[in-house]
Write a structure and sequence with these properties.
single chain, 242 residues, mainly alpha, globular
């Protein structure tokens, strides 16, 4: 797929929707990580700097995932549409110039409510992603440090824990990602019902459809998760924002 995109559409086609992807990270990911870290630090301050239990971490991740899902939904819709535009028939393509143009055109052509199409699958995905990503990173890091005596401040530890988090997050979120993408890429609200999409997909494609695209999803989410946590650990080390 990567070779075909570059050979048929050029190198820049691999970066279709980059502005929307950046906007999505600046809203969705920032909200998720920011809220989760803030709740975790607040809990540690109230409990003599003791690490929160797994149950607490999961609770924090649920709150962070819900907030991130709501904040990031508009940019997520634009991101998906811009990336998938070339796969549509020519008369159905939207040709958004950038993320901001996409958001304004959605409001103008489909109404403000369309910016929150698929918000419930996105909330579900936000909760699952945050829980599977940040909680599995914290747990993986604790295991490496406590069970295998790895240095908590070592980049090797951060890399190992983030690789584990990327694998867990990709697997857990794959079913919701598939349904969410189909909803947000729908041309009308009638075609964007999560239940009908799920039923039709299982009937026509089998249960395996929920893990369609796992490999490209991990190729994206794996390095993204590793780079995110390595960067966050360095920010924490130098006391920048964390």
């Amino acid at each position: 797929m990567a070779v075909r995109i570059v050979s048929q559409e050029g190198v820049l086609a691999a970066y279709s929707g980059l502005s929307a992807s950046l906007l999505r990270q600046a809203t969705y990911s920032t909200a998720r990580f920011g809220v989760y870290e803030a709740l975790k630090e607040y809990d540690m301050e109230r409990n003599d700097n003791q690490a929160p239990s797994t149950i607490k971490l999961l609770s924090f991740s649920v709150v962070a995932g819900v907030i991130g899902g709501i904040v990031g939904n508009p940019s997520d819709i634009v991101n998906i549409r811009m990336q998938n535009d070339n796969t549509l028939p020519i008369n159905e393509r939207r040709h958004y110039r950038n993320a901001v143009d996409g958001i304004f055109r959605i409001i103008k052509e489909e109404g403000v409510s369309s910016l929150f199409r698929g918000v419930f699958p996105n909330l579900t995905r936000g909760v699952l992603m945050t829980a599977s990503q940040v909680v599995s990173y914290d747990i993986g890091k604790q295991i490496l440090v406590n069970e295998f005596s790895w240095d908590a401040k070592s980049k090797n530890t951060h890399f190992g824990a983030s690789l584990f988090a990327g694998l867990v997050a990709t697997t857990v979120c794959s079913p919701v990602d598939v349904v969410k993408t189909r909803i947000m890429n729908a041309s009308s609200a009638e075609n964007a019902n999560a239940i009908s999409i799920l039923i039709n997909a299982v009937k026509n494609e089998g249960v395996g459809f929920m893990f369609r695209g796992w490999t490209p999803a991990f190729i994206r989410l794996g390095p993204h998760t590793i780079l995110t946590f390595l960067a966050m650990e360095q920010l924490r080390h130098y006391k920048v924002g964390l």
